[in-house]
Amino acid sequence: MNYDDFARLGLSIDMTRGKPAPEQLDLSRGLIDEAGTVGHLSRDGIDCRNYGHLLGLPEARELGAELLGLSPSQVAAAGNSSLELMHDALSFAMLFGLPGGEPWRKSAKEVAFLCPVPGYDRHFAICEALGIRMIAVPLGDDGPDMDFVEAQVAADPSIKGIWCTPLYSNPTGTIYSEDVVRRLASMPTAAPDFRLFWDDAYRFHHLTERRHASPDIVGATLKSGYPDRALVFASLSKVTLAGGGVAFLASSPRNIDWWQRHVSVRTIGPDKLNQLRHVRFLRDRAGLERLMERHRALLRPKFDAVAATFEAMLADARGVSWSTPQGGYFVSLYTPDGLAKRTVALAAEAGIVLTPAGAAFPYRIDSRDTHLRIAPSFPSLADIELAAKGIALSLRRAIDERK
Ligand code: PMP
Description:
This protein is an alpha/beta fold. The chain has 2 domains: 3-18 and 288-402, Alpha-Beta Complex (Aspartate Aminotransferase, domain 1); 38-284, Type I PLP-dependent aspartate aminotransferase-like (Major domain) (Aspartate Aminotransferase, domain 2, 3-Layer(aba) Sandwich). Helix content is 41%, strand content 13%. It contains 14 helices and 13 strands. It starts with a helix and ends with a helix. It binds ligand 1. The site of ligand 1 has 12 residues, from helix 5.
């Protein structure tokens, strides 16, 4: 089949966002079906229907601590979204400053963040919305280019942080190496209030039998003498329900106190009933891992289909490559220079909606115009097989047009 034949099929497949498929959401049906039967009393007799417990239900914090390998005092259990926690943390830093630091908005020079690229578009959207300047950092196979990072943060006190998705990065699937993690934890920074925004979104989301472990960044920063450097974000959004999970913030006691102080102005407490349901449903780490195995069984064939189709249709295309992630929700496809936008346009004409080219870069600027983010989780396997074919045909057409 060539591109024109494919376009005539008149398909309509949305590959834009890394959402769980309905079959994955069905795996957590128990959360909804049994919602009423867990009652409203926590283990310690807390009435979860009422206000309070700003840092979360004790057993939800304990579950978060078990999942993150930390102690409950270092973990806050919050609402349904970790992105919201990241937004809050940055907003609080902008408005009020981090412990011991000036409000960032008062900084003489516009504050900046390092952004490994390709990266998560919503991280960049937060920076853009809050007026935080973004500096792109090349992301290698083992994490951000640390020579570049170290030189930047040592020289410029207006650089206040770096976005890190240490395991199965969105959208490249990158796994940070131990050496990169050690350097991030221990590098000297000109800004005393520099922070690692450590988004451990894919900590539980393995696609192979090997469960790669997320690095213990809180421990590593403590060992390096920078106990407050890491703010860790984690989420059950893609474990249970994408719109109704539980998010966690983990950090040093000083940062947790700081967060509690500011969040107490914003809310009287999180949804403890949802936290209680999650504790009863997942129980512990083993319970979560059993559930993630079932996600893997649904997701793996979709990622395999993308890899097999690209291998069959693009292996001989010069300048084309793609990631084969061992976890997470995305595949990155690299076109020859200058062809990503054109490939997205051709795919759209053939009925496949892709994330706009450039989305994975600060200010949406992919200067070489080569990167495409493919999200295979949501459509059915049959649609994924078709979509991967359509993307490959669109890319080949874009290459041919140039000849
Ligand atoms: N971080 C990353 C890297 C993600 O890919 C996503 C979801 N696509 C999120 C955070 C969002 O998490 P939450 O649902 O907890 O807000």
